[in-house]
Amino acid sequence: MSATPVLDTLEARVLGVLVEKDLTTPEQYPLSLASLNAGCNQKSNRDPVLDLSEAEVRLTVDGLRGKGLVGASHPSGGRVERYHHCVRETWGVHAVSLAVLTELLLRGPQSVGELKTRCQRMAPIESKDVLLHSLEKLAGRGFVRETPPPPGSRATRWMQLLVPGGEPAAAPAPAAPSAPATTTPSADRVGRLEAEVARLRRNLESLAEKLGESLED
Questions:
Q1: For the chain, which end, N or C, has fewer CB atoms within 10 Å of the first or last residue's CB respectively?
Q2: Separation CA 8–CA 144 (nearest Å)
Q3: Contact (Cβ atoms closer than 8 angstroms) between residue 22 and residue 3
Q4: pLDDT, average across residues 98-103
Q5: Exposure pattern of 25-39 as b/e (b: 16+ CB <10 Å)?
């Protein structure tokens, strides 16, 4: 596969939820379609908050299965199909790196401090140096990159590169001041006006001649 996997926005959400639930609530994992759908629409630890239907989630799961990132099973012979991720095997990432990718997929660009705090629920991180080492390894594989600090902050942020077009939107450039309104007519307009005046003048002269001839008679 390519050095940098490619996901769409819904695949990123579904995959992030599967890894998160694996690392935080293993007793409830693998997930049924209903549980996976609820995790995708969860209002906490998600940015943006989505409102996906089960049909949309199922279709997304099918796409991820085709990429070798999700598998399905029927644990203990149950009738309900359940889904699990295959990120460790397919991408070859473990522990801290897996937690970092999951957090970035679920919540977008974050600073090292934010990542350290939030990733602790999924994997123990001894220090920021350990976290930075994982980020640098992921950056070397094209999975993430560091971005400049947002306005009003000194801390740089890290973003995932798995979803094309996931770059933070740049602030719009200030609009150029509009040119002051002008009342000066254009050359074309002046020409049209002059021609119209000349035509009216000729008409008046013609009428005057006819009127004079009528009076003489």
A1: C
A2: 16
A3: no
A4: 98
A5: eeeebbbebebbbeb
